[in-house]
Amino acid sequence: MAADAIKADVPAAPTHRVGGESWTALAAWAADELGVRVAFDGKLYRIEEDVHAAAPDASTTESAARRSWFRRRSPKEEAAEGPEPFATETPAELLGELVNRLRERPEVTHARPVSQPTAVHDLSAQLFAAYKLDGGQAHLAGCHFDDVPLVRLTWVQEGDDGAQSIEHRYYDELGEPLEWSLAEALGVDRVAPLAGPTPRIEPERLARMLESVRRHADVAPSLETVVWAKRAWGRLRFEFSDQSIDAPFEGWARLLKAPPVVCPLTGVDTYHLTTIEGGEIAAAEQVGVCDVTKHRRLLADLVKCSATGRLAEPEYVGRCAASGEPVLKSQLVRCDRCGLLVAPAAKRSGDCDACRRAKRVGADDPRLLAIVAKHPKLAKRNWALTETPVAYVIEASGWFRRRVASFDKESLTVIHAAEASRMSSVWRPVAVDSL
User: What's the sign of the alpha-carbon dihedral 288, 289, 290, 296?
Assistant: First the structure.
């Protein structure tokens, strides 16, 4: 993995923590790495070769690994097995001996986090748990792991009271410090011996990495360790019948989170996938159901009825002639007076809001001039006029009769013409030329 990819995930200081690990934890890892065992008889700590020790595999738990490095011995056992090559009464000398043995090895020590995903099945369950699929299936279309080297510098110091002070600092391949919280999140603050061979790394690259890190250390450390953290990358695939969509993922394996899926129809991020009519995959949050046909459509392709709040495909929706708002065609009602189709709320007492808004206009009103130009016989009367989003309504009142006509706003074709006696609310359709 390129070093700049690592650096992108690395926040700022603080970069270390003193006293974050006990001396026993560090000694346990060192003993496991060296393949030795520490015995304690109540007075002396002894380092003994563990001829039966085997390198822990990736499934070894931290507690099991720690039990393998230390045991209490009785004086009788010691006498039977002969003198020990190293013995001390102080934990400081014990830890110092273990650290020195690691430093004396010809190659730098390598380690791994005690806990991190190492296989596909370690990731798949946690990734797929984030998604909801309406009838589809999910699987990994590819998953790969990259071992990324990080450097741990360790300082071991003994205080005036004899207590051990252990400081770890972590660096990326470019020598830049890692924030302590990131080290903890990656699990590199608790390490174990590598399970299997050391990841491949060219000697020149390793040397450059260590040299870059050393330049950041103000005092020579007690120990240098290369800790191999894993990054994972691949693709999740979501299948619905013969349709599929992929979501790429990449990041530290221990911190990996399920990526959102980009809806191919709307471009929004989602964790909930469904299909629309025809089988196309879409974000469920962007899908609705037509109240008329029960077809699943994108919300952008449905119209909400202003009268009922229900959704429908455009061909099942009209416009209230009084307000211009969308209304299900099945909900529109006809005004007895002007003949316009309006929402139920726009009609009261036999007429509609458009009729009630009519106001007297002059003969030179450009809207009235346009209507008269197309229908010349209407010029003989004084008209009141209402303009709606879709229509013009004109009305005139005489001594004995009232007259009304409505016209399409774009074409000025007649929608309806009617008349009623002065004392009646019953409107009778008539030809527009007879008004």
Answer: positive
Looking from the CA of 10 toward its CB, the CA atoms found within 13 Å total 21
Delimit the domains of the chain by residue range. Answer: 3-232, 352-434
d(CA 6, CA 3): 5
Sheet with 36-40: strands ordered across: 70-72, 36-40, 45-49, 86-88
Q: Given the structure tokens 């527009």, which residue do they identify? A: 432
Q: Which pLDDT score, from 0 to 100, does residue 138 have?
A: 94
Task: Say which DSSP state 14 is in.
Answer: -
Give SS3 for 120: helix
DSSP secondary structure letters along 269-298: EESEEEE-TTS-EEEGGGEEE-TTT--EEE
Q: What is the pTM of this model?
A: 0.74
Q: Is the pLDDT of residue 249 over 60?
A: yes
14 cis-preceded (ω within 30 degrees of 0): yes
Q: What is the separation, in whole angstroms, between the first and last Cα of the chain?
A: 85
Q: For the residues 236-248, what does the mean pLDDT come to?
A: 95
Q: In whole angstroms, what is the distance from residue 343 CA to residue 157 CA?
A: 84
Asked if residue 367 lies in contact with residue 385, where contact means CB atoms within 8 angstroms, the answer is yes
Q: What does the DSSP assignment read for 45-90? A: EEEEE-TT-----TT--HHHHHHTTEEE--HHHHHHH---SEEES-
Question: Do residues 191 and 113 touch, judged by C-beta distance below 8 A?
Answer: yes
Give the Cα separation of 264 and 248 in Å (integer).
14
d(CA 63, CA 328): 68
Residue range 174-202: mean pLDDT, rounded: 91
76-90 burial, b at 16+ Cβ within 10 Å, e below that, comes to eebeeeeebebbbee
> From CA 166, how far away is CA 17, in angstroms rounded?
9
- 46, 73 Cβ separation under 8 angstroms: yes
**Which of 39-53, 110-124, 131-145 is the least confident region?**
39-53
- What totals of helices (H) and strands (E) does the chain contain, helices first? 10, 32
DSSP per-residue letters across 320-386: -TTT--EEEGGG-EE-TTT--EE-GGGEETTEEHHHHT-EE--TT-HHHHHHHHHSGGGGGS--EEE
